[in-house]
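step 3/5: co-fold with nicotinamide-adenine-dinucleotide
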Amino acid sequence: MTQQNVSVLGSTGSIGRNTLDVIERNPDRYRISALSANRNVDRLAEQCARFDVGLAVIADPLLEDDLVEALRRLEARADVMSGSAGLNEAAGMTRTDIVMAAIVGAAGLESTFHAARCGKKILLANKESLVIAGEVFVAEANRNEAKILPVDSEHNAIFQALPPQFEDGLEAAGVRKIILTASGGPFREMPADQFHLVTPAQACNHPNWSMGRKISVDSATLMNKGLEVIEARWLFNARPDQIEVLVHPQSIVHSMVAYRDGSVLAQMGTPDMRTPIAHALAWPDRIEAGVDRLNLSQMNDLSFEAPDLERFPCLGLAFEAMKAGASAPATLNAANEVAVDAFLDNRIGFDRIPQLVGSVMERIEVSAVQNLEDVKECDRKARHMAKQWVDQSNG
Ligand code: NAD
Ligand code: MG
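step 4/5: write tokens
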């Protein structure tokens, strides 16, 4: 078997480390060509030594010398680059076959987009890039024959439950609805009048999944599901009315596809990101992922309920942004990133996150998006306004 070369963007994060774990279990199939991190020099250097990596990229240019030094101490041979040039090199280098896009937030847009420009097989964890650049990103991938495989567990589940001909349109494939499941997050049963008391530590303590801090907060507000609705629209070329959300607190059914004839296909598994990562890496093959087997005989209460849009307005805001299209999802995402940062810094309460996002969306008019520059401009504008909102609410 010929080995495939993998670049992991965001290798020090939750998805990045799970990816390295799966790759370590399948050394005859994969080797690592490049790894990247934002600031975690020590972990990045350790990973480079462990996998004998050719290129190490640190996003923060001020840390380049520290990375060189850390690699030297470990006797690792990796070349070192930094900043967006480094990230683009890792995403587009000729030697790389597969790019795991696992940077968090809009910060991942440029490198993920570059992987599309270079026609790579993209394992997409960085949902924000598809949310904000949607049509432009898909068009770039198609133009360069880049394949986008979903790593987000819901979208990976849907991909597994769809027939290959879905690419010709969901209607033609007999699909009636895509049903995204949501755990409901840690505050599924909390009354809304308690939300202002929620601390960052509580919000990051997800009942079923262990994840990075940003996506953990998004899961607690249900903005994560909102972003995923928009992600599904682009991944599966779905109309807004073809996508539904269903709360399923046990996180065993990772999502479903409902067909015209009444069939509903679900993908199940223990909540462990190594399953979708392994699926996307090896597709259409199946490889060992190190995941616990699902024991259905011990599971007697798989339950489903409709989401509560009154207590979790972020989900409704995301549906609105999807329907509005054009720049609206980029505005939604940028405002949310600022809000989550401010919440994690104890500058605004948990209950203020949807207020901030809603207020920025109301104040910024929806505009056309034709290219990456338009996307970045929307992102910049919304971020600026959201930061002002945070300052004013503290002032
Ligand atoms: P994380 O915070 O654990 O890791 C983020 C990674 O990105 C780190 O390696 C970090 O160094 C890097 N990074 C952060 N800011 C950067 C910047 N400005 N420039 C360059 N690199 C930067 O996040 P995560 O939980 O692994 O999530 C990564 C992505 O995957 C997110 O888009 C998230 O929504 C998505 N995702 C995560 C999970 C999960 O279980 N963790 C599940 C589904 C989707
Ligand atoms: Mg998900």
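step 5/5: annotate
The radius of gyration is 20 Å.
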